[in-house]
Design brief:
With about 425 residues, the protein is of the alpha/beta class. It folds into 2 domains: about 120 residues, no CATH class; about 290 residues, TIM Barrel (Alpha-Beta Barrel). Helix content is about 30%, strand content about 25%. Strands 1, 2, 6, 7, 10, 11, 14 and 15 form an 8-stranded antiparallel sheet that branches. It binds iron/sulfur cluster.
């Protein structure tokens, strides 16, 4: 029989321990909650654990029926809260519960999930939202295979700067998509653009001076030519079944700013093959650029949103020379053209499933019947995010209930984590 979950905490060395018989609390929005142990799952393989500096863990005190925090361990050492970063394809359903000291630093760019201990094992509030294994850590423990594969591609395309960039991504930044390109499987990343016309608070590749945390990886520093881009895509399509190649990666700016060059590259590919899925991940800021790429032959588009609410969108994405209406015009252009349309919705428990956001999302989906929602964890300190967007806390239905509701209101819509190959566009995936 599984025992009750126990509070997890981190000591001064960053080691994670359990506090036996202390019921852990969780967080949704800015509120502490108790969670049914049935909603907890074993920590997914390849997930990371974090200690949260300047933050004391919060537990549920059965004696006074309230939420209290703990500052020291049984040994009397000062402790801090602990958290998990779930591996790819898993969506967290609750945040870690802690109180924050005055002088605590803003947390770096990760998606923090609750963490508890049950019978000596780590458990988390989360759910797998995509069965596709392309970024499963277990299939990426193969550097002995990767190194010769990189050498072979560099030898095959010695002049191609994009291949050299992807080899840096695959090794230096451990980009799983770049590894898949060299290993000849699933989705290949095609970063092309240095500049961006947004200043997203949680941008992974560029943070402004004075930002309280660094970018997670350096921004691309060159502009590959259409020929170099087409070579990489054609190479991938020539050897991968159900291949996907995607513009718009975490290490670059906004690809629509180079729509004409990308359209030229797409034409080169489509002159050579109808096989493979050409996708663009984008902020959707340039509807005319979207139209040009559809004309050239892309198969799908994924537009990133932190929220369907214009105010929250503007405060997070901080658009430069474009507006939320431009994004909606891009959605219209893509839906009217009949390509596969996804929104990349950044989930944060207590915000995305809050009453007002759920209503906004319901209205949005009524107006824009997209084919898929990619349910992604927002990689940002929750308190920093709430302060930056001026979030007004409200009742929330819970992430699992929101997923169920989306299934109900749009049974034809796909929920998942990855850009699907066109061979499966018609499939609707079940989330367990
Ligand atoms: S659109 Fe992408 S590259 Fe541009 S600021 Fe946002 S996250 Fe960064």
């Amino acid at each position: 029989m599984k025992h009750e979950p126990c509070l997890a905490y981190a000591d001064g060395e960053g080691r994670v321990w359990d506090f036996p018989d202390i019921e852990p609390a969780f967080r949704t929005g800015r509120r502490f909650v108790r969670v049914d142990p049935e909603e907890l799952m074993p920590l997914p393989y390849g997930s990371y654990l974090f200690s949260l500096p300047g933050r004391y863990p919060v537990f549920y005190n059965r004696r006074n029926g309230d939420f209290n925090h703990i500052e020291v361990s049984y040994r009397g050492d000062e402790i801090c809260a602990a958290s998990a970063f779930l591996s790819s394809a898993y969506l967290r359903t609750y945040l870690p519960a802690y109180i924050t000291k005055e002088d605590a630093p803003v947390l770096p760019l990760w998606a923090y999930a609750g963490l508890v201990v049950i019978d000596g094992e780590f458990f988390v509030p989360g759910v797998r939202v995509d069965e596709d294994p392309r970024s499963d850590p277990a299939i990426h423990e193969n550097d002995d295979e990767l190194r010769p594969a990189i050498a072979a591609e560099k030898k095959r395309l010695p002049e191609n700067r994009l291949v050299r960039q992807l080899s840096r991504c695959a090794t230096g930044y451990r980009c799983l998509c770049a590894r898949n390109f060299f290993l000849g499987r699933y989705e290949a990343p095609v970063p092309t653009t240095i500049a961006c016309n947004a200043r997203c608070v949680g941008c992974l590749s560029q943070q402004e001076d004075g930002a309280p945390f660094p970018a997670s990886q350096p921004r691309l520093d060159f502009s590959p030519a259409p020929e170099e881009i087409a070579q990489v895509i054609l190479r991938h399509f020539s050897r991968v079944e159900r291949a996907v190649a995607s513009f718009g990666q975490g290490c670059e700016g906004e690809p629509l700013l180079r729509a004409a060059d990308l359209a030229a590259a797409v034409r080169m590919v489509r002159e050579s093959t109808e096989g493979g899925t050409i996708n663009i991940n984008t902020n959707g800021s340039r509807p005319e650029g979207v139209a040009a790429l559809i004309d050239a032959g892309i198969d799908s588009i994924r537009i990133s949103l932190n929220s369907p609410t214009p105010e929250y969108y503007a405060r997070y994405h901080r658009p430069v020379n474009y507006s939320f209406d431009d994004v909606l015009r891009s959605l219209d252009a893509a839906l009217n053209a009949g390509i596969f349309v996804s929104i990349n919705l950044f989930f944060l428990p207590g915000f995305t499933d809050s009453e007002a956001e759920v209503e906004a999302l319901r209205g949005f989906l009524g107006r824009f019947p997209v084919n898929m929602i990619q349910t992604r964890n927002l990689n940002l300190d929750p308190d920093y995010y709430f302060d930056m967007i001026g979030f007004r806390d409200s009742e929330s239905c819970g992430v699992l209930d929101l997923l169920r509701l989306l299934r109900e209101i749009r049974p034809d819509m796909r929920l998942g984590y990855y850009n699907p190959p066109k061979e499966t566009f018609r499939a609707v995936q079940e989330i367990s």
